[in-house]
Design a protein that fits this description.
Elements: H1 4-23, H2 27-41, E1 47-52, E2 58-65, E3 76-78, H3 84-91, E4 95-97, H4 110-114, E5 119-127, E6 131-140, H5 148-187
Antiparallel strand pairs: 1-2, 1-6, 2-3, 4-5, 5-6
Helix pairs in contact: 1-2, 1-5, 2-5
Length: 191
C-alpha cells in the first residue's frame, strides 16, 4: 500500500494527464506525456507505449521516455506466443516480470536487455468497444515487484488513454478527409 503522499501524487498525475489529454489534438504529444508522467510517478524514469500495427503481427514503439533515440519511433517487436506484450493484450490483463534474468514465461527483446531493463509491467490499452490499441509498459533497471496499487494506477492510466487515443484517431481521420476538400477550395478546382 502506498503511503498517503504517494497516493495523492498519483491522483494528481492522473488529473494532470486527463486535463492535458482533453485539450491536446496531437496523439504523439499525449502518448509521450503519458510515458513521462507514469515513469516519474513510479520512479523508473522509463516507460513506453507500444502500438499494434494494422497487420496485427507487430508492436511499434510509438512513444517513450528514458530510451535511446533509436528506440522510440523505430523499434518493432513481433507479436508472438512468447511475447509478454502479446500475452497481456490477448489475456486483457497486466503482466509483470519482476526480474527478467529469471523470467521463463516470455522472451525479452534484446534492445530491452541491452538498455539494462530488469523488471517490467505491461498494461493493455483498449479503446471503446474493447478494441486493442497496444501496451503501456513501465520498465525498471532493478528487480521490482510492482505492487497492486501501482498496477491499479497503471490500469487507470490505460483506461484513460484508450478513449483519448480513439478521439485523436477521429480527429486525425477528420483532418485527412477535410484536407483534400480544403485544397480543392483553395485551388479553384470544383469539388
Amino acid at each position: 500500500m502506498p503511503d498517503l503522499d504517494q497516493w495523492a501524487r498519483r491522483q494528481q498525475v492522473l488529473a494532470d494527464f486527463g486535463e492535458f489529454a482533453i485539450h491536446s489534438e496531437d496523439l504523439d504529444d499525449v502518448l509521450t506525456e503519458a510515458c513521462h508522467l507514469v515513469g516519474e510517478a513510479l520512479g523508473t524514469g522509463r516507460a513506453k507505449v507500444l502500438e499494434i500495427q494494422k497487420d496485427h503481427h507487430e508492436l511499434f514503439v510509438r512513444a517513450g521516455v528514458g530510451w535511446a533515440p533509436d528506440v522510440v519511433g523505430t523499434v518493432r517487436l513481433p507479436m508472438g506466443e512468447r511475447s509478454s506484450e502479446t500475452y497481456a493484450i490477448e489475456a486483457a490483463q497486466s503482466i509483470i516480470s519482476s526480474d527478467i534474468g529469471v523470467e521463463t514465461r516470455f522472451d525479452i527483446p534484446d534492445f530491452m536487455k541491452k538498455a539494462g531493463v530488469v523488471a517490467l509491467v505491461n498494461v493493455p490499452i483498449f479503446m471503446p468497444g474493447q478494441r486493442a490499441y497496444g501496451i503501456l509498459q513501465v520498465d525498471d533497471t532493478k528487480p521490482r515487484d510492482f505492487g497492486d496499487d501501482e498496477i491499479q494506477f497503471l490500469r487507470t492510466y490505460a483506461m484513460i488513454l484508450g478513449p483519448v487515443i480513439d478521439r485523436l484517431h477521429l480527429v486525425e481521420e477528420r483532418a485527412r478527409r477535410e484536407s483534400p476538400a480544403r485544397e480543392r477550395g483553395t485551388t479553384g478546382v470544383p469539388a
